[in-house]
Write a structure and sequence with these properties.
The structure is a single chain. The chain is an alpha/beta fold. The chain has 3 domains: 10-222 and 272-323, 2-enoyl-CoA Hydratase, Chain A, domain 1 (Alpha-Beta Complex); 227-270, no CATH class; 346-374, no CATH class. It contains 16 helices and 13 strands. The protein has helices at residues 64-79, 102-109, 113-131, 148-155, 171-174, 182-190, 192-200, 207-212, 255-267, 273-287, 291-301, 303-323, 327-336, 347-356, 362-368, 370-374, and strands at residues 28-36, 42-53, 83-90, 95-97, 137-141, 144-146, 158-162, 166-168, 205-206, 218-220, 223-225, 228-230, 269-270. The protein has a 6-stranded mixed β-sheet with strand order 1-2-3-5-7-10, sandwiched between helices. Strands 4-6-8-9 form a 4-stranded mixed β-sheet. Helix 1 (64-79) links the parallel strand 2 and strand 3 (83-90). Helix 1 (64-79) packs parallel to helix 3 (113-131) and helix 3 (113-131) runs antiparallel to helix 12 (303-323). The chain is globular and about 70 Å long.
């Protein structure tokens, strides 16, 4: 109930500016954790809002209901008078998020462009809710940040990652394009040529390489072997020049070194304590700043992201909707209807069909799926 402005006593009551109470999906948790000093001591009456995607069986991919809940959660964190920072993360240690829920895409949205267009309106609002948050938004990268999960992470102000995490795009292999914010943000971060390579080659980057390219602000080890933390053993973690004169920092190991790294990884355990300490430390830095001056500074610094995002998001929504009749329909079905490890369409056959001038018919889609290859 809104306080009566004619009643002086009622003016002491605080107005609730949230649209509705609480998150709408159990797979999205909103939790206020005590803010801390730089010494790690809890501060009475101040909190950080942790917004956690918890769909671990599907690597924290977000369903339509989860998207709605994330929007509400960021609105709540933005309005909370006692919240210093918003921390956006995933449950477990496998993934921050792998993006949209491909099962839902394949079984409901594929072939239904009008429905997908409405879904993308919600997705756009989710990204905008991160970019418009009145509090600093820190992405706690607890594991893979792939596809739409990477786009959500890029909307955040700062990213802090455990160093076993991988970053990348998946849409070009599975029927989409990284136009949910990634193509808006990446060129400003690392320059056009690096952005083109990152967005189009479909390669996953290690946390170390992402740190080197400016995609994350800090990385910490998560692997413990015999009780001691050690850096990701699957990638090169020394900044040296290889035999071709190239930097190899953050690049995957190969040969015997890779096999040794896999053995080390298998022998250890994952502990995210250092990640939590790093997140708390960055949040603590914001406690000792004027809050309104901080919000205004973030608003200005977000302008390059927002300008590109707002200029492109509606056109992207229309394209993504129509794409669900062709490449999206085939790609998401292939991923969802995998045969063993085969989750991709027959790209060669698709290009041959396009070269012949074939139409996108249901028969063409069926011929491209893993099941068609398995039946040959």
């Amino acid at each position: 109930m809104t306080p009566d402005p004619t009643n002086s006593a009622a003016l002491n009551e605080l107005i609730d500016h949230n649209l509705t109470a609480g998150a709408a999906a159990p797979e999205v948790r909103y939790e206020k954790r005590p803010a801390k000093t730089m010494d790690g001591e809890p501060i009475e009456g101040l909190y950080n809002a942790w917004i956690t995607l918890d769909n671990q069986k599907q690597y924290n991919s977000y369903t339509t209901e989860m998207v709605k809940a994330v929007i509400l959660a960021f609105r709540e964190a933005s309005n909370a008078r006692d919240v210093v920072c918003a921390v956006f993360t995933g449950a477990g240690d496998k993934a921050f998020s792998t993006g949209g829920n491909t099962k839902e895409y394949a079984e409901y949205y594929a072939g239904r462009p009008a429905e997908y267009r409405q879904y993308i309106r919600l997705f756009n609002d989710m990204v905008s809710s991160v970019l418009a948050c009145d509090k600093p938004v820190i992405c706690r990268v607890n594991g893979m940040r792939i596809g739409g999960g990477q786009e959500l992470g890029m909307a955040c102000d700062l990213s802090i990652s455990q160093d076993l995490a991988r970053f990348g795009q998946a849409g070009l292999k599975h029927g989409s394009a990284p136009i949910g914010g990634l193509t808006d943000c990446v060129p400003a971060l690392m320059g056009t040529e690096q952005a083109i390579a990152y967005c189009t080659l479909g390669e996953h980057w290690s946390a170390h390489k992402s740190y080197l390219r400016g995609m994350v602000i800090d990385i910490v080890p998560a692997l413990k072997v015999d009780g001691e933390y050690m850096a990701n053993p699957l990638v090169e973690t020394q900044r040296f020049v290889d035999e071709y004169g190239r930097f190899a920092f953050g690049e995957p190991k190969s040969g015997a070194a890779l096999e040794q790294g896999k053995a080390l990884l298998k022998s250890g355990t994952i502990d995210l304590s250092l990640l939590d300490e790093a997140v708390d430390r960055y949040c603590a830095k914001y406690v000792h700043l004027f809050p309104e001056c901080l919000t205004k500074t973030f608003e200005e610094l977000r302008k390059p992201k927002l300008a590109a995002w707002n200029a492109n998001k509606e056109g992207s929504r229309a394209w993504l909707a129509l794409n669900m009749m062709t490449e999206g329909r085939a790609g998401f079905r292939a991923f969802n209807e995998a045969v063993g490890r085969d989750r991709e369409i027959d790209f060669v056959a698709l290009r041959q069909a396009i070269a012949r001038g074939d139409s996108w018919t249901p028969e063409l889609t069926e011929s491209l799926l893993p099941a068609a290859r398995a039946g040959k």
